[in-house]
From TrEMBL:
Domain DNA polymerase III beta sliding clamp N-terminal: 1-113
Main location: cytoplasm
Gene3D superfamilies: 3.70.10.10, DNA Polymerase III, subunit A, domain 2
Alphabetical GO biological process terms: DNA strand elongation involved in DNA replication
Molecular function (Gene Ontology), one example: DNA binding
Name of the protein in question: DNA polymerase III, beta subunit
A Pfam cross-reference name: DNA_pol3_beta
EC number assigned by the record: 2.7.7.7
Family: Belongs to the beta sliding clamp family.
Species assigned in the record: Ilyobacter polytropus (strain ATCC 51220 / DSM 2926 / LMG 16218 / CuHBu1)
Domain named DNA polymerase III beta sliding clamp central: residues: 124-236
Keywords: Cytoplasm, DNA replication, DNA-binding, DNA-directed DNA polymerase, Nucleotidyltransferase, Plasmid, Transferase
GO cellular component, one term: DNA polymerase III complex
Keyword DNA-binding among UniProt keywords: yes
Length: 363
């Protein structure tokens, strides 16, 4: 194989592949990327067996061919070069790049990874889908110990695309208006969501999403992504949102609330008995937040606009802070008492809802 490619394009592509590929001691060839030179393109494939990424860049091809190599050292090397184009050659079991040679792997051992065909269900701007994922992924269960909720639930119907996540203590839903060609409801692994966000972060193109045989596919320009979906049942979030009820409305300035919560969280996270827990007392048009950790205590007071009787409850401060970090306008809090669900929204934004269950109230 002997080809010439643009150095900047190669750096960008190898950097993206590095997001996907992991070390694999059982099948070491998976730790590398496959490069195939054909039809005027250099086609790169990377996979961790759960998530696959195929992308290509234009190439001047003198000799077609296939090889597999590990990315880190080569990427570090070509970043140091000051040339516009790079000649890449495979010769005598080595990969030759600009007066340097690198080890390669047996490409015949690399698994065959194809682009599974699937119907395009919806198309959306890359930055919009990233924003939607970011709005909800903080409340997904963080590890694969509970695989059923270690994911983002994506539901598509008519002109509605909903993103949902839960860790069983809280529930987040974000609505994105986009035309859907057919109904779809799938669970995308949280790790795959993180990879998708990284691969799309610099894109100004639209991304097309499809599903077939338990695989989510994403197409964008010359790039193709696919990830296995989680087949386990997701909690019945629809009933929870349908049965929301409350008797009290509170509105707060988000900047003031965020500043207050940051101070409260500093103490609350050191509370051994109820980590991250604090008392929230809604009294008149004031919110009094109190927390102690044995060696420290703080009481924070901010103004509110409240409809309904005074009450107090114990909430996880970190969970509250997670949501307010994702909004800019005033926050609306709806609740009934110390044991009922807290519903949080951004003022003027009906597309974003957050439900938080309170902690046991201790005096």
């Amino acid at each position: 194989m002997k080809i010439r490619v643009n150095r900047e394009e190669l750096i960008k592509l190898l950097s993206n592949l590095s997001v996907v590929i992991k070390e694999n001691s059982i099948k070491p060839v998976i730790s590398g990327t496959k490069l195939e030179a054909k039809n005027g393109m250099a086609v790169f494939t990377g996979s961790n067996l759960e998530f696959s990424f195929i992308s290509s860049i234009p190439a001047q091809i003198e000799n077609e061919g296939v090889t597999v190599f590990k990315i880190p050292l080569i990427l570090e090397y070509i970043k140091l070069l000051e040339v516009e184009n790079l000649d890449i050659t495979v010769s005598e079991g080595k990969l030759l790049i600009h007066r340097a040679e690198f080890s390669i792997m047996d490409w015949e051992e690399y698994p065959e990874i194809k682009q599974p065909e699937s119907e395009n269900i919806f198309e959306v701007e890359s930055q919009e889908i990233i924003s939607a994922f970011e709005k909800v992924k903080f409340s997904a269960f963080p590890t694969a110990d509970n695989l059923a909720i270690n994911c983002i639930r994506m539901a598509c119907d008519d002109n509605e695309l909903n993103m949902i996540s839960t860790d069983s203590y809280r529930l987040t839903k974000y609505f994105l208006e986009t035309p859907c060609k057919s109904k779809m409801e799938v669970s995308i692994p949280l790790e795959s969501v993180n990879i998708i966000c990284k691969l799309l972060k610099d894109s100004e193109e639209k991304a097309s999403f499809g599903v077939k045989n338990g695989i989510l596919t994403i197409k964008k320009g010359n790039s193709f992504m696919s990830t296995r979906l989680i087949e386990l049942p997701f909690p019945d979030y629809k009933t929870i949102f349908k049965n929301m009820s409350y008797t009290k409305n509170i509105e707060l300035n988000t900047a003031d609330f965020k500043g207050s919560m940051k101070k409260v969280l500093t103490v609350a996270k050191r509370n051994i008995e109820t980590k991250n827990g604090a008392i929230f007392e809604f009294k008149g048009n004031r919110l009094i937040s109190t927390v102690s950790s044995g060696s420290a205590k703080t009481v924070q007071k901010i103004d509110t606009i409240k409809e309904g009787e005074d009450f107090k409850a114990s909430l996880n401060v970190k969970f509250v802070y997670d949501f307010i970090s994702n909004i800019q306008k005033n926050i609306l809090i709806k609740a009934t008492n110390s044991s009922s669900m807290f519903i949080m929204e951004e003022a003027g934004n009906k597309n974003y809802k957050y439900i938080l269950m309170p902690l046991a109230l201790r005096d």
